[in-house]
Design goal:
This protein is about 5% helix and about 45% strand. The protein is mainly β. It has one domain (about 5-125): Mac-2 Binding Protein. Strands 1, 2, 3, 4, 5, 6, 7, 8, 9 and 10 form a ten-stranded mixed beta sheet that branches. Strand 1 and strand 2 (about 20-25) form a beta hairpin. The radius of gyration is 14 Å and the shape is globular. One of its GO terms (cellular component) is membrane. It is a single-pass membrane protein. It is found in: Membrane.
Length: about 150
């Protein structure tokens, strides 16, 4: 089974490290929510995961319309959690700007607590990064200033 993942970087006020978001699932618009921090991907815990949180995540990914969200979904994640108990107002640019417990303060979250979402609408962002995961094959590309390049 292949995974098509979309993700986007955002400016960080927390650290100098790049912060990004991706959806890990079978499409570019639906799956588990993961955030990039200091060179690694981490899960978002679904404790108090709301439609406001999902709206912020989808907008950060570059989608034009709000989303649907699920907690305790059938898919399971395998990583550590970076955020839990998010409280977004739906006006934030990134999930990091929403109220939360602090980075890596996600005690009580397990593999069944992965936040899951489905983004709706058209993709409006032009600087998207796409990853394609298949057995024995991994490719990540990005578009910047209308030019596509492979990321190694």
């Amino acid at each position: 089974m292949s995974n098509l993942v979309s993700w986007q970087f955002a400016e960080s006020t927390l650290t100098d490290e790049a912060l990004g978001i991706r959806i890990r699932g079978s499409t570019s618009y639906s799956g588990l929510v993961e955030l990039f921090y200091q060179g690694r991907w981490y899960g978002v815990c679904d404790t108090s995961w709301s439609s406001y949180d999902a709206t912020v995540a989808c907008r950060w990914l570059g989608f034009s319309n709000p989303s649907s969200r699920r907690a305790n979904c059938c898919q399971r994640g395998k990583s550590s959690f970076i955020l839990a108990n998010l409280t977004c107002k739906s006006t934030e640019n990134t999930l990091y700007k929403c109220s939360h417990n602090g980075l890596f303060n996600a005690s009580g979250c397990s593999s069944i607590n992965y936040a899951y979402l489905t983004c709706n609408g058209t993709m409006i962002s032009s600087n998207m990064i796409w990853s394609i995961n298949q057995p024995h094959f991994f490719l990540t590309t990005t578009q910047y200033n209308e030019t596509w390049a492979t990321i190694s």
